[in-house]
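hey can u run this one w/ FE2/S2 (inorganic) cluster bound, need the structure tokens asap thx
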Amino acid sequence: MTRRSDVLVCVCNTVLESQIVACARKGARTLAEVAIACDAGTGCGSCRGAITTILEEEEARRRRGESIPEAILQLPLFASVDPRGSAGPIGGAGRPPKK
Ligand code: FES
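ok here u go:
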């Protein structure tokens, strides 16, 4: 996948930023895993800092997307919310039925 504003991160192996992001989203968490997935960082090594930054940004995105603040989970409205991220129906348990 090539984005319009894509950046060539690894010159040695012609790997774009979007390709490294894709590797991270498919499960690569380390430089070694990115290297296995798309060869980025396996040449001169000068891109490894940039790859690490991309991996850190993806990890931060993952954490932001998956975490639900503990205080919110204490509210009765969210009693049926799964802390892993999926929620039951809004106003589910505890709401009186409509008349
Ligand atoms: S620029 Fe990535 S290994 Fe050389």
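The pocket of FE2/S2 (inorganic) cluster is lined by residues 10-12, 40-47 (CB under 6 Å). anyway lmk if its weird
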